[in-house]
Amino acid sequence: MSNFEQKQEEFKQCFIELMKGAVPERTDEILKHWEHYNPKMVIKNGNKLTLEATRDEIRVDLKIIDVFWLIGFSGWKAIETYIPSVMTASLFNNRILDELKNDEELDVVERTYKERIKAAEQFIEGNSSIEDIWPPDIPKITSHDDGIDDVEYKAAYDLTVSALGFALFHEFRHVMLDQDRERHNVRAEEEMACDVWAREFITAKIATYASSKSLDYQTVLQRRSMSFVLAVLILHEITPVWDRGGNCDYFSVAERIKSIIFNTQLEDNSHFWNFAAAVLIGICRMKHISFNPEPMCAKELTMFLVELV
């Protein structure tokens, strides 16, 4: 085995571990899927973002992994940036725009948030090297969460890993459909179906996992659903502006977001909705999308904002 082949095998094992870590209660199934379908992991090292699958391969470039990491950790900053306003608006039945305007500390934290997302965009566009734009307080992807002392960053680490896991499950489903001769005639429909399958695979046996760990079902569902929101943010940022409304290969970003996060058993008062609304507010304000809805709860606000992106 050549050094390059060995490197690809190492990445394959790394991605299997990521998928197992995202859904530990389905480890045996994941290993059986890999044994049965056995796609080769092909590493690309070019300027084009690549995460795609064929019958026999999952192709990924190192750049997109860095993008997931950078946007995932940056997306976590939406919590301290916008969640206070989301929660206050919901609690006191105020307009979200009024709460944002009245937040005296928003300018500073929002500037940091926007700078991080903008850095990721510059990296995606090829205008900056990863070394030039990488924020010093974000751990590199080679870091393990045991080396992170900050509790918030441990949570961000876990959610980012899970978001990457979601993307890998999506691509693995393409491999399965191809080998099983079940590919959709319409590419956009298959992309949506792979989103839904990934979400269902990750959430279907949460009750088993929660029971084995003496955890609350809603708490586990909330955490995994929050990772889907980070995946949504990453999906939005890596989709070219002219394709966000959809094309022949993909439904619009808004439709894909709805398929990933709306069909859920989460309770209406779950903290998940605060996080989802905060991330969507960040997208809107980064893209200068105006909004000023009537007072509404965080879940309703999330549903409102999705239609704008």
TrEMBL record:
Family annotation (Pfam families): Peptidase_U49
Q: Which domain of life is it from?
A: Bacteria
For this protein, the record's InterPro entries field holds: Peptidase_U49_Lit_pept
This chain belongs to which protein, by name?
Answer: Phage exclusion protein Lit family protein
Recorded source organism is Methylomonas aurea
